[in-house]
Amino acid sequence: MIFYFTGTGNSRFVARRIAEATGQPFADITTYTKTMEKPGFTEPGVYVFVCPSYMSAPARAMTDFIEWAEFPSGIKAYFIVTCAASMGITPRVASELCGRKGFEFMGAAQIEMPQNYIALFTTKEVEENIDILEKAEIEIERLSGLINKGEKLECKKIGPVEYSFTKWVRDVYYKNFMKTTKFRATDKCISCRKCVEVCPLSNISMKDGKPSWGNKCTHCMACINRCPKDAIEYGKGSAGKPRYKGPEANLGK
Ligand SMILES: Cc1cc2nc3c(=O)[nH]c(=O)nc-3n(C[C@H](O)[C@H](O)[C@H](O)COP(=O)(O)O)c2cc1C
Ligand code: SF4
Ligand code: SF4
């Protein structure tokens, strides 16, 4: 079984490709988290968790889901993290999580994908993103082959200093910067509600024909990137920047 969390589609793309290559079903974790219907999975075997790297470790939406849901003890768990550059301390975070849940940790791997964090950075031009996606397909195939053979993924050891420091930075960032106060809709908004629909945390509602942001945001960047009119801005950081429309759009699908 393959589970994914995504903001802008990169992790869904990777999850779908791994599902095709391994013959496993795949599912969006927000199917469960949006309804708060706690899943209790009973199938033993291989589970693959796919999500973006947020501040050098798997998105908390995914790790919180794994902590919350019930799984059979002893399942074999792989972690595949999509990132613009590095999965950071993912191997240690994932292996400790597996220890708490009684899973067998089968390793963690990163797949480099286009940057989507346009509140802070800039996504690349479409041609460069296509190049990244083509390289990603090769890595997905390699990892799927290892998963099919039941092999563990090799990952680097994360030392105590790197681990503690990164965890501290992450905590500070999640607490103080993953806020919605800087989001606003401009006059280009046509009240289509797409931002409401794509928010994985159901954090956006419409007020007087314009989106209004609540306070559960995880900065996934779905709303700002996927608005069909590019009508959402984030402070001064996003003005004039291209929006990242996801892998399918970059591949012309
Ligand atoms: C809040 C946030 C934090 C991010 N942190 C990192 C990071 O620490 N390292 C990195 O390489 N990429 C980082 N990125 C980039 C994403 O991990 C990358 O674009 C990912 O593939 C997006 O996946 P998605 O389309 O499934 O949401 C970050 C993106 C966001 C929105
Ligand atoms: S997706 Fe864009 S155009 Fe549609 S309601 Fe949201 S801000 Fe307005
Ligand atoms: S409100 Fe936050 S969590 Fe929801 S789509 Fe926008 S950035 Fe993502």
The secondary structure category is: alpha/beta
Distance between the termini: 26 Å
SSE series: EHEHEHEHEHHEHEEHEH
In the CATH hierarchy, what is the class of the largest domain? Alpha Beta
Number of strands: 9
Helix content: 25-40%
Bound molecules: flavin mononucleotide, iron/sulfur cluster
| Rg calculated over all Cα atoms | 18 Å
Parts with pLDDT < 50 across at least 5 consecutive residues: none
Can you give the mean pLDDT? 95
- What CATH calls the topology of the largest domain is Rossmann fold
Treating each run of at least 4 consecutive H or I residues as one helix, how many helices?
9
Number of domains: 2
Largest sheet: 5 strands, parallel
Hey, roughly how much beta strand do the residues contain? Answer: 15-25%
Looking at this protein, list some descriptive labels.
253 residues; alpha/beta; Rossmann fold; Alpha-Beta Plaits; 2 domains; five-stranded parallel sheet; two-stranded antiparallel ribbon; 37% helix; binds flavin mononucleotide; binds iron/sulfur cluster
Sum this structure up briefly.
The protein has helices at residues 10-22, 30-33, 60-68, 90-101, 126-149, 160-176, 194-198, 222-226, 247-250; strands at 2-4, 26-28, 46-52, 76-83, 104-112, 183-185, 204-207, 210-213, 232-234.
